[in-house]
Design a protein that fits this description.
The chain is an all-alpha fold. It has one domain (2-206). Helix content is 79%, strand content 0%. It has helices at residues 2-9, 19-42, 44-49, 54-78, 82-104, 113-124, 130-153, 162-196, 199-206. Helix 4 runs antiparallel to helix 5 and helix 5 runs antiparallel to helix 6 (113-124). The protein starts with a helix and ends with a helix.
Length: 209
């Protein structure tokens, strides 16, 4: 399994990249693999809950298309088009979170993923690409606010059993919790690393201050 995953995690990383650039590429690849795993885990639910429903079949089709399009991000990184890979991944993710919410309603909590992914964008885009990052964040904001306004006067586009939507609600609740922990850990590590490498800390270690 490690031999299979390692080339995917390192897709697009070359010796010419700085360590910071390599980390952003590796982080995006890791995120892509996690999203693909989440899609795979979500695929059986419509089939199990409503196998004969046309709405459930549509959700399976949308999940399958989402899987294929997200996987393209790895191909873009492999080909060295790293900036395009970052922009493409972010736009595809926002579009499908919005689509899932329109289909299933806000109770499914797909829309909760939009602000969570905004946090992730700060890890995906290097500082020299901040203009692209801000543009993508604007798109996420439009999607999130647009969904809130849409559902003031409109129901979900699909008619689904309440129990079906509730199951997605719980799946996405745990996904949001997982993302919150995953976001906090790198920040915690960076802060503590900076503290250890502070001038005062270095002076104390070398006894020359």
């Amino acid at each position: 399994m490690k031999n299979f995953l390692q080339p995917l995690l390192n897709a697009g990383i070359t010796p010419q990249l700085t360590s910071q650039q390599a980390r952003t590429v590796s982080f995006l690849n890791t995120l892509v693999l996690l999203v693909l795993l989440l899609i795979i885990l979500n695929l059986p639910l419509p089939v199990i809950e409503a196998p004969q429903s046309s709405s459930a079949k549509l959700i399976v089709a949308v999940l399958s298309i989402h899987f294929i399009l997200i996987a393209v991000t790895l191909l873009l990184n492999f080909s060295g088009r790293r900036t395009l890979a970052r922009i493409y991944f972010a736009l595809v993710a926002a579009t499908f979170m919005t689509l899932y919410t329109l289909l299933m309603g806000t109770d499914s909590r797909w829309s909760f993923m939009l602000p969570i992914i905004i946090f992730l964008l700060f890890y995906i885009f290097p500082v020299e690409e901040k203009k692209w990052m801000y543009a993508v964040i604007a798109y996420y904001s439009i999607c999130f606010i647009g969904l809130e306004l849409w559902f003031v006067h409109h129901p979900a586009l699909l008619s689904l059993p309440p129990g079906f939507v509730t199951k997605y609600k719980w799946v996405n609740t745990f996904a949001v919790l997982f993302c919150a922990i995953a976001l906090g850990m790198p920040g915690y590590t960076i802060i503590n690393r900076a503290k250890k490498n502070s001038p005062k800390s270095i002076c104390a270690q070398n006894d020359y201050c």
